[in-house]
Automatic annotation (TrEMBL):
Amino-acid biosynthesis as UniProt keyword: yes
Family designation: Belongs to the homoserine dehydrogenase family.
Pfam families given in the database record: Homoserine_dh, NAD_binding_3
SUPFAM superfamilies on file: Glyceraldehyde-3-phosphate dehydrogenase-like, C-terminal domain, NAD(P)-binding Rossmann-fold domains
Organism: Paenarthrobacter nicotinovorans (Arthrobacter nicotinovorans)
Protein known as: Homoserine dehydrogenase
E.C. number(s) listed in UniProt: 1.1.1.3
């Protein structure tokens, strides 16, 4: 049985859910031939903790808000990210700090430090993938490790790896979908009569929203995801700034109820499409979809993405687009990919 040592960078909703899974079901991965041990944690609030023999997850998960790792063996009140990433005995760095849609930092540096130190990276952070994906994949290959990021698009629902592995023989000409759990949840709650702010508060409490929910409502979260899908699956090399973006911030409760009464539903749609001249055009915009549109029935934090292919026509994948546990599962699926690589089942 292989043991993978993990360093959790960021100890918020997603990485805590991963720690809870490891605490509650340590034997869950035995049938896959590995077990997971957390040897380091860093967080802006808690500081950092490194214990090579394995951290007692029940204890750290029970620590109250406002406390820090200071005083624990290997503990510090400061989140010494660089030192922990470079020098802790981790095999895999699990990056789940805030997404920056502007420059991807500090996550981009976290990923680089890890890859340059010969550590695999699994991440749910969209910034590094959307803004520096190609550079980081190259850096990983140069260092003989993996950079995996399934959770960057549609949380734990398989999209990126599924498309690479299962749609490889097809020509993909467009991707279109509902790619943000928070905004879809909020629009649904507005249909039920809630105001925008109240609906956003609910999405925050449920762990769907970004630390700054204007990224969800204003469309910049979907913009990152569209850039990732366009670059990964359509062979584009676009920047998030190339994606023309309008969010749902100007959709009023009246707009939502009037649309519903007329048989349609407002949805925030992200799309990247290959034009006849080969250019990739990418947009994010609210659209009032007729009730019979395949994406109109996608409700709550569920997301869906449709791939337009040459041989199969439209292939659509639907599932959770946000949520702490759901996104922690994306990290597990990334660790499984790292394990396959480490055991030689997948070539770099
Ligand atoms: N929650 C969700 O449904 C999904 C989240 N994501 C992404 O996963 C990442 C984590 O999400 P959540 O856990 O929900 O966010 P969160 O806001 O609950 O947790 C982020 C944690 O990172 C810590 N942090 C921020 N900057 C740091 C730094 N420089 N050093 C150390 N710690 C730092 C914060 O203190 C916080 O505890 C984000 O990038 C988010 O965009 C992706 C898919 C779904
Ligand atoms: N805030 C995001 C989380 C996943 O990327 C969302 O709501 O979709």
């Amino acid at each position: 049985m292989t043991t993978y040592n993990l360093a959790l960078i960021g100890f918020g909703g997603v990485n805590r859910a991963l720690a809870e899974l490891i605490r509650d079901e340590p034997g869950r991965f035995a049938s896959l031939g590995f077990e997971l041990r957390v040897v380091a944690i860093t967080d802006l609030a808690f500081g950092s903790l490194v214990q090579g023999e394995g951290i007692d997850l029940a204890s750290v998960l029970a620590m109250p808000r406002g406390s820090t790792f200071e005083g624990l063996p290997g503990g510090s009140p400061d989140p010494r990210n660089e030192d922990v990433i470079k020098n802790s005995p981790a095999d895999i760095v699990v990056e789940a700090t805030f997404t920056s849609p502007v420059d991807g930092e500090p996550a981009v540096s976290h990923v680089k430090w890890a890859l340059e130190s010969g550590k695999h990276v699994v991440t749910t952070n969209k910034g590094p993938v959307a803004l520096h994906g190609q550079e980081l994949r190259t850096l990983a290959a140069e260092n003989g490790v993996r950079f995996e990021y399934e959770g960057a698009v549609m949380s734990g629902t398989p999209v990126i790896r599924l498309a690479h592995k299962m749609l490889g023989g097809l020509e993909l000409n467009a991707v279109q979908g509902i790619l943000n759990g928070t905004s879809n949840y909020v629009l649904g709650r507005m249909e039920a009569g809630l105001g925008l702010d109240e609906a956003i508060s609910e999405a925050q409490a449920l762990g769907y929203a970004e630390a700054d929910p204007t990224a969800d409502i204003g469309g910049s979260d979907v913009r990152l995801k569209v850039a990732i899908l366009a670059n990964e699956l359509l062979g584009a090399s676009i920047r998030p700034g190339d994606v023309e973006t309008t969010g749902i911030q100007d959709i009023t409760s009246d707009d939502v109820t009037q649309a519903l009464a007329g048989g349609s539903r407002w949805k925030l749609i992200g799309e990247a499409r290959r034009e006849e001249d080969g250019r990739i055009v990418a947009t994010v915009q609210p659209v009032a979809l007729p009730a019979d549109h395949p994406l109109a029935g996608i409700s709550g934090a569920t997301n869906a993405v449709s791939f337009t292919t040459d041989l199969l026509g439209a292939v659509t994948v639907s599932g959770p687009g946000a949520g702490r546990v759901e996104t922690a599962y994306a990290l597990i699926s990334d660790i499984i990919a790292v394990d396959e690589f480490a055991k030689g089942a997948v070539r770099a």
